[in-house]
UniProtKB/TrEMBL annotation:
Residues annotated as domain DUF985: 5-134
Phylogenetic placement of the source organism: Bacteria, Bacillati, Bacillota, Bacilli, Bacillales
Pfam families: Cupin_5
InterPro entries hit by this protein: Cupin_DUF985 (IPR009327), RmlC-like_jellyroll (IPR014710), RmlC_Cupin_sf (IPR011051), YML079W-like (IPR039935)
Protein name: DUF985 domain-containing protein
């Protein structure tokens, strides 16, 4: 049976600053406003190694591949929280793909102990680290105190 280490080794994934493991696999050669039209990565998360709350200036589409389901935790610009379950159990509300609109604060996690999830994420226009903002708990608590439980669980305690 394939486990997280199998995918990390075979897909040549590296640690991501937000949490988990990744490798960019596609980048459009076409450009608009000096940016690639899109980029795409493999992204793997394990239980206990979440993607910490962050924000992008472009839309991101998530595609489920393997492992256990993954929860994408989102806080919209207006402060609404939503949990999107990415996985194959569509009869119980999971989806195979999901959109995180630009400007949304989000992170993701694998809730079941000992499990992992392998997904792909496509960003359009293409991802640039300059457009990536990783949040601390203090920053988010000032804006969204009503989401204290999610913030304390998925935001960094301090800047890295």
């Amino acid at each position: 049976m394939k486990n997280s280490q199998y995918w990390i080794e075979h897909l040549k994934l590296e640690r991501h600053v937000e949490g988990g493991y990744y490798r960019q696999v596609l980048k459009s050669e076409d450009r608009h406003d000096n940016r690639a039209l899109y980029t795409s990565i493999y992204f793997l998360l394990e239980h206990g190694n979440p993607s910490h709350l962050h924000q992008l200036t472009a839309d991101e589409v998530w595609y489920y591949h393997a492992g256990h389901s993954l929860t994408i935790h989102t806080i919209s610009k207006s402060g609404e929280y939503e949990a999107i379950k990415l996985g194959t159990d569509v009869e119980n509300g999971e989806v195979l793909q999901a959109l995180v609109p630009k400007g949304t604060i989000f992170g993701s996690s694998v809730e079941n102990e000992g499990e992992y999830a392998l997904v792909s994420c496509m960003v359009a226009p293409g991802f640039e680290f300059d457009d990536f903002k990783l949040f601390t708990q203090d920053e988010l608590m000032k804006q969204f105190p009503q989401h204290e439980e999610i913030i304390k669980k998925y935001a960094l305690k301090e800047e890295i």
